[in-house]
Structure formats: structure tokens, C-alpha cells
Amino acid sequence: MARVGSFEDRFRKFFVLLLVFAVAAAFINMIHGFLTALFLAAVFSALLYPLQYRTTRWFGGRERLAAVVVVIVSLIAIGIPLLSMLGLVTAEAVNVSSKVMPWIKEQLQGGGSGLGGRLPDWVPFADELAPYRRTILEKLGQGVAAAGKFLVGSIPNLTQVTIAIALDAFIMIYAMFFFLVEGPEWLARAKNYVPLHAEDRDMIVARGFAVTRAALKGILVIGLLQGILVGLALWAAGIQGAAFWGAIVLILSAIPGLGAAVVWVPAALYLFIAGETGWGIAMTVWGAVVVGLVDNILRPIVVGRDAKLPDLLILVSTLGGIVMFGAAGILVGPILAAMLVIVLDIYHAAFAQVLPED
């Protein structure tokens, strides 16, 4: 009888697990189009919850009224400027990607200035690079055009209010309200369904929140500041698409030491080759000193050591997240990377007896 009871118990548990996975898979497949909006709502709600807590106290414990105020204030303070910036950047990205190839053809035919002639003598390996000048220009044009198309594809054209965009925005705002009100209770209940030790569950939540906060600080503070600095330098030097390239810096700013240099270093090289030596020197000094100080001094102060991820892991997870999830991948990528590190740590602790010692 014990064996029968044990078999029935195992079979019942197996059936329950199979049923849970089947229903969960069907539900996730049904709402998969809204997962990004729900994820962003959860992230923003977690970051805004300290404000929600203080606002609730100001309103005498009325959580729903406080949540409405917090959502409205955040939309006015962040949402409207963000939509305006995205509209400007998207329009300029389309303009850059559509004009760069005709400009390259003009340079190759000798109709333009600067790059239309041979490379200056002071350029290193000028004679050796001369036979490859056409190829270099063509590859440069293809790279710029690809960057423009990529940015347009990653950031939805919010200047055209489509049904899908409006629906995603509505779901995100609606979910933020309920996450602010019911989020802590839902999170506590969700932890009870994870068969891990309490410290492991708390570590997953705390680590994910820390990485998200660090990524947002890097984008909203460091990335925005570096994007403005690089964009102003490009605009002053007369390079078209300053807002577009500033947005590229903002997107890549989560990658320490690399994001801004991806833009200002090629811009300085272009100015040198085009014969604008003074502007090339100014761009180099501006990028290395001013923009570099933001990355090397201000980033540790603002972002801190919350992320605690290797720079290479941040690089591949950020770029991979953008490719897979679009603009939201800037946050999703590093969070998934942090979750992988946490899961590996939990795995190592659970199987410490059979794994080799360090």
C-alpha cells in the first residue's frame, strides 16, 4: 500500500506540474505581445515605489490616490520629454540613413570637398591607404546607413500614434498603477512559489533590482549627459545628424568606457582626414577629457557598484538585448545577464558536494 500511495503521490505531483506548465505556456503565448510593456511597468514601478511610499503617507494611507499621482507625475516629468526626443531622433535617423549613400557617391566622384581629393600627407599610411579609399568610403557609408536603420528599427516611430503603440502604453501605465498598489504583496506571494531557500529568493530580487537601477542610472544620467556633450561637439564641428549620434551614445552608454568613444573617435578621424585639423584636435580633446571624465569620475559616483558585472558581459548583454527586444533590451539584456550569474551561483551552492572545489 505504501508503494501504491507513493506512486499515486508522485503521479499527482507530475500531473500538477505538467498542468501548470501547460496553462502557463498557453497564457504567456497569449499575452506575449504585452510582455515588454508589463516588464517595463514592473521595472519602473519598483524604482518609483519609494516615492509611492512617501506619497501614500502624505495622503493619509490612500494608496490608490498616491499611485495615480505618482504615475501622472512620472509621465509628465519623463514620458513627455522622452517622446519628444524619440520623435526627433527617429526623424534624424531616417534623414541620415537616406542621405549618407548619395553623399558617399558625391565624394567618390570628386564633387564634394574634403574627402573628394587624396588623403592629406600627414595622415599615417596615406599612400598605402590611397588605393583603398573607395572601399573605405563605401564601407563607412554602409555602416552609417546600417546604424540609422538599426536605430529606426529599435525605437518605434512614436510620432505616428498607432493602435499597437497606444495599446502598449495603456497597458504599461495601467500595470504601473496596480504594481505600485499591489506590487509588494504580489512579490511576496510569488516568492512562495519558488522552491528555493529564502536567501536565494531574496538575492534574485535584490540583484535584479540593483542591476536595473544601475542600468537606468547609467542611461538617464551618464548616457544623457554624454549624449548631449557628444551631440554638441558634433553640431559645433558641422557634422550632420548630431541628435542621431547623441542618441547612439545614450543607447551605448551602459557599456563603461566604450559607448561615447564609438561615436566621437570616428568623428575625430573623419575631421582629420577631411582636413579639419583644428576641429579634429578639439573633438579628440573634448572626447578624451570632458566626455572621458564623465565616464571615469561621474559614473562610479552616480551608478556605484550596483551592477557588479564584467564589462564584457555588459557589452554583449546590452547589444544582444537591443537586437532581441529593441530599445527595451537596454534594460532587459543586463538584467538577464545578472539573472544568469545568480542562477549559476545558486547552482554551484546546490551541487557543491559533486562539483570540484575552487
Structure notes:
There is one protein chain. The protein contains twelve helices and no strands. It has 358 residues and is mainly alpha-helical. Helix 9 (261-273) runs antiparallel to helix 10 and helix 11 crosses helix 12. The longest helix is centred in the N-terminal third of the chain and has 46 residues, at 63-108.
List the SSEs and their pairings.
Layout: H1 2-31, H2 35-58, H3 63-108, H4 126-129, H5 133-154, H6 163-191, H7 198-237, H8 242-252, H9 261-273, H10 277-302, H11 311-325, H12 329-350
Helix pairs in contact: 2-3, 2-6, 3-5, 3-6, 7-8, 7-10, 7-12, 9-10, 11-12
Overall mean confidence score, pLDDT: 74
Task: Report the sheet-strand fraction.
Answer: under 5%
Q: How does the major sheet shape up?
A: none
N-to-C order of helices and strands: HHHHHHHHHHHH
What is shown here, in short?
This protein is mostly helical. The protein has twelve helices and no strands. The two termini are 47 Å apart.
Features:
mainly alpha
